[in-house]
């Protein structure tokens, strides 16, 4: 067997990033970023309230939460190529079959299947593959992959809306399923590889990353053992950080309503939603680059602007441009959900057992979305939107402290 090299004009790691962007932009983009366009037409067609129909997404979150521990172990054993390809195929079949449903219970069943597949495709795909294939520019690559889901939503929402308008929601589900099944799945099977060694390569940036290591050893094998990691306080700090980041990000669902309650029109509320998405897309790319320089700066760059954004929304009530600035800054918190959690996990525990450790951390992401998306609504009903935003800001400030603790914990251990 030939020795792995880093030769080649274009490193195959960038093909892996392309595959991850397909997963996030098409598979995840069609399922999550475009889900809202189906709520009204489907609920009217099957004769249930919108809220009752939308519960299938909560079912999906719960299924992902339960699947994640096993998903991490399966990827370690069988590899990302096989499991991402199979789950993409299953997701495509599931989404396409939703065009044939006539009962809300069928959608709940589909939510279970979607949740199982998204445990692999949404939570574990790009963090695991990028960390395996890259030693430098890890943050930037994670940011690019993560941003693809928002870009996919921007592209496919109008396409799906046009299909629903012209041919009905059943045709839109069938078309979305076909895009996943025939557009993404074959490419994953053909192009994905689990590790650089599968292509006879070293990870991208190996020379730069190993320049300071004695003997030039690859840093990919370094890190904390899984059994040791799950007993460390830093592990629980990262897990709670992840839960808080996801929980606070779901405030995005209530910001347009808050803007309207503050006296603005639906059009102006839609501008607020667009400002959040602008912050998310730009934030994901910039957070990746910031993390490549310093992970602590990344923690601060996604939490402190988020706190400031919520403060502007509270203080600027009645002044649209101030609220739009607050929405944009809040988008950086939303961007940190996937980018910062993945980077902080890698910094705290290394790459040795990253797959299994990050799978457990992702449970906090999934459960945070499932719990908070309904919890904030109940709090708003019992108090006010201002109270919700205030509690969100305080919670996010606590998350900042936890992220900082997780950043410094490895250094403390190395000195012990």
Query: What's the average pLDDT?
Result: 87
CATH class of the largest domain: Mainly Alpha
Distance between the termini: 41 Å
What would the principal axes of the Cα set say about the shape? globular
User: What oligomeric state do these chains adopt?
Assistant: single chain
Assign the CATH superfamily of the largest domain: MFS general substrate transporter like domains
- CATH hierarchy: architecture of the largest domain: Up-down Bundle
Biggest pleated sheet: none
Range of strand content: under 5%
Number of E-state strands: 0
* Helical content band: over 70%
Count of DSSP helices?
Answer: 16
- Radius of gyration, whole Å: 21 Å
Give a nutshell description of this structure.
With 416 residues, this protein is mainly α.
Structure write-up:
There is one protein chain. This protein has 416 residues and is mostly helical. The protein folds into two domains: 189 residues, Up-down Bundle (Growth Hormone, Chain: A); 193 residues, MFS general substrate transporter like domains (Growth Hormone, Chain: A). The chain has 16 helices and no strands. The radius of gyration is 21 Å and the shape is globular.
């Amino acid at each position: 067997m030939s020795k792995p090299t880093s030769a080649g004009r274009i490193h195959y790691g960038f093909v892996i990033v392309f595959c991850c962007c397909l997963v996030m932009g098409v598979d995840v983009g069609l399922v999550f970023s475009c889900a809202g366009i189906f709520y009204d037409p489907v609920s009217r067609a099957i004769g249930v309230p919108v809220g009752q129909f939308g519960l299938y997404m909560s079912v999906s979150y719960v299924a992902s939460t339960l699947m994640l521990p096993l998903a991490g172990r399966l990827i370690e054993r069988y590899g990302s190529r096989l499991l991402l390809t199979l789950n993409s195929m299953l997701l495509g079949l599931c989404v396409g079959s939703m065009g044939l449903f006539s009962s809300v219970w069928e959608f709940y069943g589909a939510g279970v299947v979607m949740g199982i597949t998204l445990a692999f495709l949404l939570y574990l795909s790009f963090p695991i593959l990028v960390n395996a294939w890259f030693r430098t520019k890890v943050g930037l690559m994670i940011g690019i992959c993560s941003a693809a889901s928002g870009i996919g939503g921007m592209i496919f929402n109008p396409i799906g809306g046009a299909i629903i308008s012209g041919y009905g929601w059943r045709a839109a589900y069938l078309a979305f399923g076909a895009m996943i099944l025939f557009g993404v799945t074959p490419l994953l099977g053909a192009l994905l590889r689990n590790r650089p060694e599968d292509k006879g390569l070293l990870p991208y940036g190996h020379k730069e990353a190993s320049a300071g290591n004695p003997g030039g050893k690859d840093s990919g094998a370094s890190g904390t053992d899984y059994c040791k990691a799950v007993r460390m306080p830093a592990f629980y700090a990262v897990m709670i950080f992840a839960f808080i980041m996801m929980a606070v990000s779901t405030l995005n669902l209530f910001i347009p309503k808050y803007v309207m309650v503050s006296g603005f029109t639906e059009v102006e509320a839609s501008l607020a939603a667009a400002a959040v998405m602008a912050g998310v897309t730009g934030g994901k790319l910039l957070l990746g680059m910031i993390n490549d320089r310093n992970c602590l700066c990344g923690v601060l760059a996604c939490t402190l602007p988020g706190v400031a954004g919520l403060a502007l929304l509270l203080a600027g009530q009645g002044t649209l441009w101030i609220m739009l600035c607050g929405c944009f800054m809040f988008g950086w918190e939303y961007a940190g959900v996937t980018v910062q959690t993945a980077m902080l996990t890698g910094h705290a525990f290394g790459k040795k057992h990253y797959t299994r450790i990050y799978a457990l951390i992702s449970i906090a992401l999934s459960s945070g979305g499932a719990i908070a998306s309904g919890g904030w609504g109940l709090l708003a009903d019992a108090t006010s939107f201002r109270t919700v935003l205030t509690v969100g800001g305080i919670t996010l400030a606590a998350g900042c402290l936890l992220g900082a603790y997780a950043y410094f914990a490895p250094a403390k251990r190395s000195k012990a």
